[in-house]
């Protein structure tokens, strides 16, 4: 932006200089200069002045965010960017700042090129940003560059009235009555993953890496929910799992490219990791586009509807989108559909699979809790293979474990916003264009809310919550307000169905010690680097 402004005004200056040359005779009072020289001279002067102001004057002497507390140990040009990328965790250094200023509403830090950035801390600041003024914020350009190719133009990148309308159309798909019908599918997939564990036990001496099978199975579940067809039936040259693995699990070099691309667009550079990423995205789009095209055509024809399955009624999200948008007179096109489908597929599987993996990891670390959960599961199932929704939801310890895992290991590492206009939050004016970080860990690991043992895994704490921890905003894994996660009931159900199946069939022992699991950084999902291993033993052998 600065370059555009300086270029425009330098071009104007060059024109003015040329016109003046027509009126003044060349001489010592009006030297003859090359037009390019005039342009370059003016550009350089202006650019240096503008950048000095932005880098060294505005942030230190004029920014309204100066009054907020925050770290002062930033790099003089790169702010905290290097520390974020080299900290070894996508939630650091943010959590250490929260521990230092737990009572702050917001913490101010310097980002790339000393631009102002804000970490939102207090529940009240979260409420004002995510609920009361939800649509006064949008998504920053760097976030768009980071995830748009993966999630497309679905809910995440919609704002204002458009967002409200699309959410309304899609809300039916996440209604509890509809979700309950997905339990058999989830149970079937849980059995499948148990069989995979069972097979791998034999040739890995019991040690299983939880991430690959869970990532694959949660992708299967969300794909069947969204597209209405199991992935195995799709005749694709490159399987979906492989495509998503390329996108979500790049090499270290791929991670570096993603991070740099967020700051300066470089996806167009023809280097190996970029080519792999772009090819995977193109394959994904082509596959989904084909399915969407067929479904739209199918829905338009009587024949298709009557072939759709039991009673001719399809239940998947894609079909609901086609039907409901039509019923509301919106007639969504292919672009709308592909955006939503991509968003649900991306948002709905890595988050869930990693949450389940972290939960198994904690059960392995805390065998007494694991035994209690097994007992609860056996009692609730009463010997039956399949369970009703009410029986699953009545499992108190399982519910506590679910919340506690999401509290200490929130799958969504961050969400971000950019102020679309100057706006006052908790008494501080946030200038238009400021980037905000919203991190569940800022709430979950805050000792003022969760006490001095905030970082410890203790599912039983949910039986006797007190003070700030008992308030609704103390649990922020899905954030809140009109943009809060629409998939939270879905994910809770899938988590519970999988966990019940696992503890009924296996006993887990720790391989990785608490706090010693390296993490992928940067990452929008809290992912263990190189997988997460446990030792699994079949229950009938225990
Ligand atoms: C453990 C699992 C999950 C976690 C921790 C999680 C977390 C979140 C969070 C924190 C947001 C808010 C992002 C923001 O405000 O910018 C969000 C949004 C969203 N989530 Fe989830 N999510 C999970 C599972 C799912 C599932 C299973 C689905 C779909 C089936 C889903 C679909 C979405 C969508 C579409 C949005 C965007 C909502 C909007 O902007 O209106 N999520 N999720």
From TrEMBL:
Keywords of the record: Heme, Iron, Metal-binding, Monooxygenase, Oxidoreductase
| Ligand binding (heme) | 485
Report the InterPro entries cross-referenced here.
Cyt_P450, Cyt_P450_E_grp-I, Cyt_P450_sf, Cytochrome_P450_Monoox
Q: One Pfam family from the UniProt entry?
A: p450
Essential cofactor(s): heme
MF terms in GO: heme binding; iron ion binding; monooxygenase activity; oxidoreductase activity, acting on paired donors, with incorporation or reduction of molecular oxygen
On whether NAD is a keyword of this UniProt record, the answer is: no
Under PANTHER family, the record lists: BIFUNCTIONAL ALBAFLAVENONE MONOOXYGENASE_TERPENE SYNTHASE, CYTOCHROME P450 FAMILY 4
**UniProt similarity note:** Belongs to the cytochrome P450 family.
Q: What is this protein called?
A: Related to benzoate 4-monooxygenase cytochrome P450
């Amino acid at each position: 932006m600065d370059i555009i402004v300086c270029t425009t005004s330098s071009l104007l200056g060059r024109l003015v200089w040329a016109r003046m040359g027509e009126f003044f005779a060349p001489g010592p009072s009006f030297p003859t200069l090359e037009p390019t020289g005039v342009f370059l001279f003016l550009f350089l002067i202006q650019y240096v002045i503008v950048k000095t102001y932005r880098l060294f004057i505005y942030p230190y002497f004029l920014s309204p965010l100066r009054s907020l507390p925050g770290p002062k140990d930033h790099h003089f040009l790169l702010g905290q960017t290097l520390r974020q990328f080299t900290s070894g965790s996508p939630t650091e250094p943010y959590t250490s700042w929260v521990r230092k200023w737990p009572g702050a509403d917001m913490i101010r830090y310097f980002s790339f090129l000393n631009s102002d950035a804000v970490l939102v801390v207090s529940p009240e600041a979260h409420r004002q940003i995510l609920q009361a003024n939800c649509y006064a914020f949008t998504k920053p350009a760097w976030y768009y560059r980071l995830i748009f190719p993966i999630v497309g133009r679905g809910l995440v990148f919609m704002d204002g009235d458009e967002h409200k309308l699309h959410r309304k159309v899609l809300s039916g798909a996440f209604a509890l009555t509809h979700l309950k019908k997905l339990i058999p599918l989830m149970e079937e997939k849980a059995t499948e993953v148990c069989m995979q564990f069972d097979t791998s036990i034999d040739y890995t001496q019991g040690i299983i890496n939880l991430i690959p099978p869970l990532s694959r199975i949660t992708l299967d579940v969300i794909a069947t929910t969204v597209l209405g067809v199991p992935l195995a039936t799709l005749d694709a040259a490159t399987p979906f799992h492989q495509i998503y693995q390329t996108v979500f699990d790049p090499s270290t070099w791929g991670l570096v490219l993603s991070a740099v691309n967020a700051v300066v667009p470089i996806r167009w550079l023809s280097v190996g990791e970029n080519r792999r990423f772009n090819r995977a995205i193109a394959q994904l789009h082509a596959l989904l586009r084909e399915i969407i095209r067929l479904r739209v055509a199918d829905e338009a024809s009587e024949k298709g509807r009557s072939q759709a399955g039991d009673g001719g009624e399809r239940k998947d999200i894609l079909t609901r989108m086609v039907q409901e948008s039509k019923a509301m007179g919106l007639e969504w096109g292919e672009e709308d559909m592909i955006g939503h489908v991509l968003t649900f597929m991306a948002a709905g599987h890595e988050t869930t699979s990693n949450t389940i993996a972290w939960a198994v990891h904690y059960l392995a670390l805390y065998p007494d809790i694991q035994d209690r959960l097994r007992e609860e599961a056996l009692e609730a199932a009463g010997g039956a293979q399949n369970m009703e929704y009410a029986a699953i939801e009545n499992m108190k310890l399982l519910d506590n474990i679910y919340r506690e895992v999401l509290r200490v290991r929130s799958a969504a590492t961050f969400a971000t916003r950019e102020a679309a206009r100057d706006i006052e939050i908790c008494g501080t004016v946030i200038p238009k264009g400021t980037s905000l970080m919203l991190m569940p860990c800022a709430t979950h690991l805050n000792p003022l809310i969760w006490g001095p043992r905030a970082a410890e895994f203790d599912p039983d704490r949910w039986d006797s919550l007190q003070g700030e921890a008992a308030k609704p905003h103390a649990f922020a894994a899905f954030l809140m307000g009109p943009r809060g996660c629409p998939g939270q009931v879905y994910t809770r159900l899938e988590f519970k169905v999988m966990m019940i199946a696992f503890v009924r069939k296996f006993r887990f022992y720790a391989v990785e010690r608490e706090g010693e699991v390296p993490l992928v950084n940067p990452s929008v999902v809290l992912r263990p680097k190189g997988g997460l291993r446990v030792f699994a033993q079949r229950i009938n052998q225990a």
